[in-house]
Design a protein that fits this description.
Keywords: Membrane, Transmembrane, Transmembrane helix. By secondary structure, this protein is an all-alpha fold. Helix content is 85%, strand content 0%. It has 7 helices and no strands. The radius of gyration is 17 Å and the shape is globular. The mean pLDDT is 88.
């Protein structure tokens, strides 16, 4: 077994921070989405540093450990959805990076981003309508929720790009 000690130590520390972010979402209710997004961003950091397979293992370990430790399991499911999006877009990015001859790569990348997001978001929105909304919701209101989700995707994606491109690049030199 060829395991690098530095990679294991870093992965373990980031996994602990990820689970702490999930657990703090239950404690600090006003910052729940922020903390869950921050936890999901660590999935992308692990993927970019150590590869897709290690990132997928990290993602699954975070979900399992989150279910064991976090008091609110719904937040772990939300983290899983956010992390799945990041895992998916990073996999597509790696796939497209290996194919420079492919045309319209950025267009394909954005199309796949929306497909991955909507594969997670729309079934949750329509399937768990009673959990998400207190009262019966009209079809027009549901369409507004779909549109708001698309805007939220843009904000989430910009935040992820900022964290990866700016914040992590500054911290990376100090940590690794």
């Amino acid at each position: 077994m060829h395991v690098k000690a530095k990679q294991m130590a870093f992965g373990g520390l980031i996994l602990a921070v990820t689970v702490v972010c999930m657990a703090l979402g239950s404690v600090i209710e006003t910052n729940t989405l922020f903390l869950l997004a921050a936890a999901a961003f660590f999935v992308g950091i692990v993927i970019r540093e150590f590869g897709l397979r290690t990132g997928a293992a990290f993602y699954l370990a975070a979900i399992l450990l989150g279910f064991l430790v976090t008091p609110n399991k719904f937040y772990v499911i939300t983290f899983a959805a956010m992390g799945f999006y990041i895992l998916g877009i990073e996999a597509v990015w790696i796939f497209l990076a290996k194919r420079p001859q492919m045309g319209h790569r950025m267009g394909i990348y954005w199309l796949v981003k929306y497909v991955i997001f909507n594969l997670v978001y729309l079934p949750c929105l329509f399937g768990f309508r009673s959990m998400l909304f207190q009262k019966a919701v009209s079809d027009q209101m549901l369409l507004v929720a779909v549109a708001v989700g698309q805007i939220a995707l843009l904000i989430y994606d910009k935040a992820y790009q900022y964290v990866q491109g700016t914040l992590w690049e500054k911290w990376r030199k100090r940590i690794l």
